[in-house]
Specification:
Blueprint (H helix, E strand, L loop, with lengths): L1 H5 L2 H39 L1
Length: 48
C-alpha cells in the first residue's frame, strides 16, 4: 500500500506543493525580518 501511495502522481504533486509553500513562507518571513531590521537601523541612525 505504501508503495502505491509514494509512487502516485497525486502524492508527488502534493509533496511539491507543500515544499513550494514552505519555501515561500520562509522567504516571506526573511523579507519581514529584514524590513524590520532596516527600519530599526534607520531609526537608530536618525536618532544619532
Amino acid at each position: 500500500m505504501a508503495a502505491l501511495i509514494s509512487n502516485s502522481k497525486n502524492y508527488r504533486s502534493l509533496l511539491i506543493q507543500l515544499r513550494q509553500r514552505s519555501q515561500t513562507a520562509q522567504v516571506r518571513a526573511a523579507v519581514a525580518v529584514n524590513r524590520e531590521l532596516v527600519m530599526l537601523y534607520w531609526s537608530i541612525g536618525h536618532e544619532i
